[in-house]
């Protein structure tokens, strides 16, 4: 099974998780981490340790973060350097997560799932024009 951790600044992770639960239901092997204002780097790293421990039985874990270079991303990368099960993706949006959640039901190929999720995320970024109607 491929586990998923969503992490981000403020209530990014809990907010996107709430939205996902409305659309696709409560996903299994899924954890989230909110990095709140005033929280220490040590507390963030403890959150990661806790969530990674909860997903210890997963063969692969995809960590989806909000922005490249932020504390949630940097902490995830720190863990990924020493744990080959971990893949870290930045720029997370809802279509990416939906693709990853549904895709892992049919495949254990984490590389293909990650690529598919990234393509889904890009494909859903549009600008509305009246001539689209």
Give a brief outline of the structure.
The protein is built from 5 helices and 4 strands, in the order βαβαβαβαα. It is globular.
How would you describe what is shown here?
- The chain has five helices and four strands.
- It has helices spanning 12-24, 41-54, 71-82, 94-103, 110-123, and strands spanning 2-9, 30-35, 60-65, 86-90.
- The longest helix is centred in the middle third of the chain and has 14 residues, at 41-54.
- It is globular.
- The mean pLDDT is 95.
List keywords for this structure.
133 residues; alpha/beta; 5 helices; 47% helix; globular
DSSP strand (E) fraction? Answer: 15-25%
Query: Overall pLDDT, averaged?
Result: 95
Q: Name the helicity range.
A: 40-55%
First-residue to last-residue Cα separation: 41 Å
Main beta sheet, described?
4 strands, parallel
* Neighbour order of strands in the largest sheet: 2-1-3-4
Supply Rg.
Answer: 15 Å
Structural category: alpha/beta
Shape: globular
Q: How many H/I helical runs?
A: 5
Note poorly predicted spans: none
Number of DSSP E strands: 4
Order of helices and strands: EHEHEHEHH
